[in-house]
Amino acid sequence: MEKIEASITSAGGYTGRRMAKDKLFKYVMTFGGLSVIVAISTIFFYLVSVVAPLFMPSHMDDLKPLAISVAADQATVHLAMEEQVEIGARFASRGGVTFFSLADGTRLLQEQVGLPKSVAASSFAAGDPRKRIMAYGLADGRLVLFKDDYKVTFTQDPEDPKKDVRSISPGLVYPLGTDALVLDDAGKALKRLAIQHDDDGTTAVAFTQDNRLLLGYYASESDFTGGSATSRRAALHELPKLDGGVDQILLEVKQRDLYVLHGGRFISHFDVQDKDNPVLKQAVAVVPEGERVTALSLLSGGFSIVVGTDKGNLAQWFQVRGAGNVNTLTRIRSFKSMPAPIAFLAPEHARKGFLAGDTKGGVNLYYATSERLLVKADTGGGAVRVASFAPRANAIVLETDKGEIQAAHIENEYPEISFGALWGKVWYESYEKPDYLWQSAAANSDFEPKFSIAPLTFGTLKAAFYAMLVAVPLAVLGAIFAAYFMSPKMRSVVKPSIEIMEALPTVILGFLAGLWLAPFVDNNLAGTLMALFFLPFSFIITAYLWHRLPRRLTGRVRPGWEAALLLPVIVLVMWLAVSLGHPIEVAFFGGDMPRWVSNELGWTYEQRNSLVVGIAMGFAVIPTIFSIAEDAVFSVPKHLSSGSLALGATPWQTLFHVVLLTASPGIFSAIMVGMGRAVGETMIVLMATGNTAVMDLSIFTGFRTLSANIGVEMPEAAVGSTHYLLLFLSALVLFAFTFFVNTLAELVRQRLREKYSSI
Length: 759
Hints:
By secondary structure, the chain is α+β, with helices and mostly antiparallel strands. The chain folds into three domains: about 65-240, no CATH class; about 295-315 and about 330-420, 7 Propeller (Methylamine Dehydrogenase, Chain H); about 465-705 and about 740-755, no CATH class. It is about 40% helix and about 25% strand. The chain contains 15 helices and 32 strands. The longest helix is centred in the N-terminal third of the chain and has 50 residues, at about 1-50. It starts with a helix and ends with a helix.
């Protein structure tokens, strides 16, 4: 009796310890699960917080009047600001220049452009805002070139020696000297003027008082110290007369294209790259009859023209290459109209944004590429006469027809981002049609970044598709055979061997795919395609022949070892395919199948293409799918299959109607995990494709995935820039996609488990 009681006490103590351990384990598992959820949620909300500024609306402060005393007899022809938005400049019709404080309008400096004595200014022109070049056209056919300049100096703060005080000194400089440049030898007044200047030379186009359109080019020469510059007129040409009179002249910043508005609705385009032989390329009506152009401006870079009309309409035009390799000025997009005639257009210095002011005092801020109206403001009733952006586009200054100068700060960091620009086709400058484009950087400073996430998302799905196309049949069928048909001894070798492949660094697979597999496939394209096509059929044929062999031969191979006989078949088929590939290419594809694909079929062919990535990524994904699927099939209770066999079902009937149904949740999970592995793969895609962000389903073209794009461009992206935040958005898209797929997979898996749990 005492022994029984002792045993009960001992068992009770053991049970108590076990229950305590179970409870502790429950808390640990609960804590671990909650920690995973918190970690994933933290990652999600962090990505959202980083990306959120991209979609915040732009903001402009109320326009603030500045009390600036100016000469009443000198109308404002131009306004400007320096980079720090501390000093503004007003340029008057007779050459007076007033530098003033943008904080309160206090006059800081009064200057006079060095116009020749007793000669009046008859016109004014401002060149590219980034170069700050301006010119006055004179009544005697000459012009004076100058620019505003702001010297920044730092001096020690007398109150705090550790700090420096910044001071900005405005002034005027004359890049070609103070002497006026002769444009019209006849000495007629220059009524309209356009000017552009760079280190190589200066181009001026003027419409004279006697209705002649003159093109002049001045070559610049500097002394050996670079301290002084002189110029000589290297070319002068009179352009053809245009109907309706010249209303406005626009000269592109690189001095290659000239656009002349005439007749109120026509723009004539001249190619002036050869200054001795300018060519009229085309004349196009930019508005219908009954509507007139009231404002015209070139956007930053000089490729696009923004047209404003007397009906408040706004449109963007630029040259598009068409049939016969001929460029045609084409209307690209329209913007939300304004309620009154457009009075003035002002472009940003470095982006494709512009400001439009109408005759009722409306001020709208637009961004051309994303086709967005960013901000709507009002001057208080006065029509906008002149306006200008700060160099960083974070402020504007304008003057109304009432002579009032107003300024406002702008918060507009990411105007190029919109849902349409990220996911839809966008018609960028110099492109023949709208397209999905990702091109975040270039060597040219005039380059406009192109930020479409669509081709990256497409590339991610394309990579996963081709990888799964290779991996799923091999991994799932191999797992079924290994778990159900293969001998235990052979399985003990095969399963660990495949699973150890998962530990192979993907950078090694990418290295082999890029440097060995891609050239091999390129040199043996026909053989590779034949091998991929004939291998499945060779298995079926081999199985049929094995079934037809005499029992005395097949009986020598122990059950479950038949798969080993396929190894020489695989080697033989691949050797035959590669050996026959070159003769077939010679016979049917001109000896070079890749070139035939490009020339005859018109398909783009790249050496590092989807076929190479599909094979390489397929082998990277196979171990994951195989391991999970094999465990699922092998874990099917033996009594189910034994009972099915005992009831007279064949092994294949048992496999299809019992084993696979029971293991289907695990097999489905294996495929979904493998897909997640393929979607997130970086190194193989990075090294085995050309990383071209294109949307093409062809197996012979490359692609760029979201993960590879992040890996390539994140080190080069400026922190806080649009490019930088869009890489985080790419990560968020990848995160959301995998979360959605995994959630859907879990729901399907649970449904399958509930459906077949009763078997």
